[in-house]
Amino acid sequence: MEIIRKIRITRCQNLITYIIRKKMSLSTHYSPNEIEAKWYQHWMDKDYFSSKVDETKEPFTVVIPPPNVTGVLHMGHMLNNTIQDVLIRKARLEGKNACWVPGTDHASIATEAKVVKMLRERGIKKSDLTREQFMEYAWEWKEEYGGIILQQLKKLGASCDWNRTRFTMEPKLYDAVIDVFVDLYEKGKIYRGLRMINWDPEALTVLSNEEVIYKDVTSKLYHVRYLIEGTEDEYITIATVRPETILGDAAIAVNPKDERFKHLHGKRAIVPMCNRSIPIIVDRYVDVEFGTGCLKITPAHDPNDYEIGQTHGLETIDILNANGTMSETAGFYIGEDRFKARKLIAKDLEEMGALVLIEDYKNKVGHSERTNAVIEPRLSLQWYVDMEQLVQPAIDAVESDEVEFLPAKFKNMYSHWMENIRNWCISRQLWWGQRIPAYYYGEDVFVGKTPEEALAKAQEKLGKPDLTIEDLRQDEDVLDTWFSSWLWPMSVFDGFESREELDYYFPTSVLVTGWDIIFFWVARMIIAGYEFEGKRPFKQVYFTGMVRDEKGRKMSKSLGNSPDALGLIEKFGADGVRFGMLSCAAAGNDLLFDDKLCEQGSKFSNKMWNALRLVKGWEVVEKNPNAASQILNDLAITWMNNKLQQELANLEESIQAFRLSEGLMNLYNFMWNDFFAWYLEMVKPVYGEPIDRKTLEATIDLYEQLMTALHPFMPFITEEIWHELKDRKEGEDCVISAWQTGGDFDKTLLKEVEFTQSVISSIRDIRNQNQLKPKEELTVFIQSTDAGKTFLADGKLNSLLMRLGYLASIELTEIEPDSTVAFVTGAEKFYVKIEKEIDVEAEKIRLTGELERAKKFLIGTTKKLSNERFVNNAPAPVLAKERQKLADGEARVKSLEDSLATL
Q1: Global pTM?
Q2: DSSP helix, strand, coil percent of the chain (3-state; round to 5)
Q3: Are 222 and 341 in contact (CB under 8 A)?
């Protein structure tokens, strides 16, 4: 009796200790906001993100796609920068010299618009300021508001080297742009020419072709008749969507093969409203099927009309002001907006009997990528880069995979554009930007890095040594913003001034960007890399997709479907948002975003946190007094170590192939199912009982490795748990721990445990179906075959089955025992003893339903694997998983058919 009393006292003391430890342990719910701020500041204080030239280390370099200085964090930024952070954090864990360079782009058009708005609110007009005064205000705005997005990226966990933050208008980067302009000009690769350009009437600047977005719109097609000169009632009718440009007409063109109008060749027509006589010309460009088959030619307001006008020597009549209002040259509606003038002229043409018909017409209309204003074609003197002289090395680099595109499908898009490239218009009619280093003396132009250099050239060429700087006039325009960002991978390392950093960090490792700027930026950076350094600017380009809502719509403010990025972080934590973004982000494919994915990430954090609480709440003893329990613990540790090696190898393969979403979700499923649901259940001591130190330390080591593997994806929760698992020395942090790539693993052991898990799962299903208590001890029989005997003789697997199956016993049988429910796993047949009467008909219905579902699943998997396109293009791990699904499905069907046969 005394012994029993002591045992009871001991158990009671253990229980009290357990309860006290629970109360003193970690909080019951993971709260990310405080923890994320704490760890980010810790990493910054430790200077972990900084990188310096170190020839003993392999550099891993990423340059951020510089967001506009006007920008704030949105979903596209979050996706792009999360992916960059995953890659840079993994490189840091691998011991590489990880260098992620942040920075912002001066964004000429967008920033100038912001500054003009600020001035307007202060009652100041831009036109009342000198250039120098305006620039002072612009820098004031930049210092107050610019770079907000970089601070927001810190909340996401971006581990940039903030000491390296660059800005495209800072002095060194500004000078690099000027150096490149002068260099290309002196090589004859930059020129100034009068061309038809894309004009933004709102921003009051020219745009390159790539900055024009063509949208499908429903316009009105106006049929207007012109009187044939010298007649009283003979007319020729044209069709136009821009009747206001009639006032700038220089000719009417017909196709020379169009029999309808041969009698009009060489005659003239009278332009309605202004009564100007214009020739009727013939040109093969005219489409006889479009409209009336007659084309009004307005050389000042259409690029194709301009070319026809040049061919036929036509007059160029510009009837629009720079801001899109009607000019004095138009003669009518002077000062009215072009769209209002369209309505007015339509009404007037109708009143004078010249308007024949108005019909709806679907067409594409160019809009400014920056202001969304409808673009106006305009004849203008601008600066251009002769792209044909530069493009070939960049074509060859991508074609040969010297610069690797991921996914490779974007190579075709890139090649098509590059092989049909147009010259790049690089001048912009703005003040905010790098001012073009061209200086004029009369009609002569001199290009120099400084006014003094340009003056020296002018003095020499003109033979006028007495010329002064005041005699020269600098070009008023600035350079296209992309003309600075195409140098980004070189200029951020002061590549046009110093060699040390450029030689070490360049070419960079990976560029992560959206495919929508493949022409704006990616292609031009590749061109610049070969032109100025003779090498690729980066080894790989990872293209992200567009972030769309759950209905597949592109996220936008106008649709109201773009969530507040910082609001998501506040609600779900940065780790939760990162998980949500990455879980649906396959390379190059648009992703359907739903904040439920972030919620899933948040729940995953809580799952990890509760697992930590469980492990930290266990009482520990030096040695397990229960031999059978220790056998199971040893099996669990050995199995989980082998399973982990397999998973780490798969994760490494996924990241190397840039299948980040696949890698994250595989790791998620492994942790949730194998580690949390199976392993911890295997080693968890009976309630109130202690765990042996060996098993606890092995569990902590395993959890620690999992945190390191997950760290690039979810850095905050992993750092917190990594520290809570063990007492750490100063300077020990998860962010700089060692990355594991996985090693050898025992495939036989993994299959044996997987088989046992399937048996346990089947027993649990039978419990649920027969409404048995989860922990009611059952008797299970296994068919007496050689394999069955071998399984039963394996003490470790037997111990696992007994413990997690909650069995009273497991026995061999030669016959089918009474009052049992059978199931088949693999090739083995099991019977679960059920004390209550079994409803055979109900069991048949249940199994038949399961069999039908299993067969449908099998048909779907078979169909997918019969798809030659899928088999040829799917990554090896994805293909292996589908084939495993097929094998599992076939085994499931056979198991259910065998179970039905026993009823």
Answers
A1: 0.84
A2: 50, 20, 30
A3: no
